[in-house]
Amino acid sequence: MEQAEALGHVVRAKRIQAWDDYLTRTSTSSYVHATYLYEVDGKEYRYNYLKRAAAPLTLTLYYIHNPKRAFMKEEKTSLFLGLLLYLVPIAAGVGVMLFLG
Fold it and tell me: Which of 9, 28, 34, 84 is deepest in the core (most CB within 10 A)?
């Protein structure tokens, strides 16, 4: 991302279409799909969005050499938090098994 910013390859994309897997939007496991449109040097490109979070109206996208291969800034998650989310349920299960005999 730093390389794309240094090259000035940062674009704003506008959402043109959005939908989710479920009609109710109440399910936490529902994926949100969206299509974004952005322009580089007078040529239009599309970006496909797929996340479990609501699709914003605009996105900031980055690309290195090819505008067709744009990407979003991704938040890096903590390794400690990821391990904690796996180990706590396992430890609880083992504790219950030992308690019940």
Answer: 34
Neighbours of 9 (CB within 10 A): 18
How far apart CA 8 and CA 6 sit, in angstroms, is: 5
Sign of CA dihedral 77, 78, 80, 81: negative
Residue 4: how many other CB atoms lie within 10 Å: 18
Token pair in block for residue 90: 């396992």
Q: Which pair of structure tokens corresponds to residue 29?
A: 């496991």
pTM: 0.66
Taking every pair of C-alpha atoms in the chain, what is the biggest distance, in angstroms? 70
d(CA 12, CA 67): 12
Nearest CA to 39 among 3, 13, 2? 13
Residue 30 has pLDDT above 80, yes or no: no
